[in-house]
Write a structure and sequence with these properties.
It is a single chain. With 398 residues, the chain is of the alpha+beta class. The protein folds into 2 domains: 285 residues, Cupin (Jelly Rolls, Sandwich); 93 residues, no CATH class. The chain is 33% helix and 22% strand. The chain has 11 helices and 15 strands. Helix 1 packs antiparallel against helix 8, helix 5 runs antiparallel to helix 7 and helix 5 crosses helix 11. The longest helix has 20 residues. The chain is globular and about 65 Å long. InterPro entries: Cupin_8, JmjC_dom. This is JmjC domain-containing protein. It comes from Drosophila gunungcola (fruit fly). May play a role in cellular stress response.
Length: 398
């Protein structure tokens, strides 16, 4: 059995996050320094990169994308000069995140290939993440795929929780394929520390350094923060189970879009993640047509790309496989309570720091927000789907 095949089986069958320490990658585009990569980007990009800027002082709620400003005046090399080291007088962090391969100069992607992990059919369907210190992604889980994260430059902190952890899920802001939670791990409210500490029973943590690879199992919650200027690449391995979840996402999309149709731009910007603002269906019939196609795909098992099974070997066989690999592969373990509390207390010092931004204004009432989150809750959506298929089967036999 080849190393690539062993890694593939480990990745698809792991039940906890995995770290591959100093994985021997040979991706041409990342040879040399981060400055070399940024210089090549500036030289070959057809237009300047658009960075997100986020005020460090805006800390009373998670640092949602809707609260960030856009900056297209920064080139990559200027980003390194202005944000490469977080100075005491710095007011913002900056990031160029979740950029798909087709948005990047070809030379900045040369050699990237996930076949070394057993997935040659990736089709350049990966993303790049560049950010300064404190650039972060609010805690969420990805509805689709198993996530392979390659740390290329710098350090990045990952705080992870199993799927069953009782975090407060929300679909506001709505982003297709991401379920956020209301917990603010960037700056926990000191008055709610007991609630945060209780979550520590299931907290996992790692700090990735350049050359490390993290495997995030399906539906694991994660809060991610750059500890220095950081560049990473990730690939979501598509799964057969995703075909069923695609129906859930269509239902959520219909509910959310129904709530914003005809509303002001301010309300749309509050309810929708920025990348969703231009993705609203022109009319409900378009969404229903997509839903119907997703039902047909699920029942036929057809897809336009390779989909992978999970959980097809026993834990005993998985452990034997892990022991047979001549690489350093570490399953993460629950974080020691004292380390978890230290992390919380350190981040809590950011909460309403002197000169903090005023609280974000909310253009909708709390009842409206609670109603949207309730209608989109995973167990509610699952119930709707069960009822749909019950009626579908009934109509087919009548």
């Amino acid at each position: 059995m080849s190393l690539n095949s062993k890694l593939r089986d480990l990745i698809l069958n792991t039940r906890v996050p995995l770290i591959l320490d100093q994985f021997p990658l040979e991706w041409d585009c990342f040879e040399g320094s981060l400055h070399d990569w940024c210089e090549r980007f500036d030289r070959e990009a057809t237009e300047p990169p658009e960075f997100e800027l986020m005020a460090l002082s805006d800390s009373t709620t998670p640092q949602w994308e809707r609260k960030r400003t856009k900056a297209s005046h920064l080139g990559m090399q200027q980003f390194l000069r202005e944000y490469g080291v977080l100075e005491e007088d710095q007011t913002h962090w900056a990031a160029y995140q979740y950029k798909r391969a087709h948005e990047m100069p070809a030379s900045c992607l040369k050699g990237i290939d996930f076949s070394c992990f057993g997935f040659p059919e990736h089709g350049n369907d990966f993303s790049l993440w560049l950010g300064s210190e404190q650039a972060n992604t609010p805690c969420h889980y990805d509805t689709f795929g198993v996530n392979i994260v390659v740390q290329v430059h710098g350090f990045k902190s990952w705080l992870l929780f199993p799927p069953e952890t009782p975090l407060q899920s929300t679909r506001i802001p709505y982003e297709e394929s991401s379920v956020y939670c209301l917990e603010n791990f960037y700056a926990p409210d000191p008055e709610k520390m007991q609630r945060y500490e209780e979550l520590g029973r299931d907290a996992y943590h790692c700090t990735l350094q350049a050359g490390d690879v993290l495997i995030v199992p399906r539906h694991w919650w994660h809060y991610v923060e750059a500890m220095s200027t950081s560049l990473s690449v990730n690939y979501w391995v598509p799964l057969k189970a995703d075909m069923d979840l695609a129906l859930d996402e269509f239902l959520v999309k219909h509910i959310v879009e129904s709530c914003v149709k005809g509303e002001s731009q301010m309300i749309k910007q509050y309810l929708l993640n920025p990348n969703q603002l231009d993705d609203i269906s022109a009319k409900p019939s378009q969404l229903f047509a997509q839903f119907k196609q997703a039902v047909q795909n699920m029942e036929s098992g057809q897809s336009n790309r390779k989909l992978w099974e999970t959980d097809y070997i026993s834990q005993a066989d998985w452990q034997s496989l892990l022991n047979s690999i001549n690489l350093t592969v570490r399953p993460l373990e629950v974080m020691p309570q004292e380390e978890y509390k230290l992390l919380l207390n350190s981040n809590a010092r950011r909460f309403q720091i002197p000169g903090a931004s005023p609280p974000e204004s909310t253009p909708i009432c709390s009842t409206w927000e609670l109603l949207v989150s309730s209608m989109c809750a995973p167990r509610v959506i699952a119930g709707m789907k069960r009822e749909f298929f019950r009626r579908l089967r009934q109509s087919e036999t009548s």
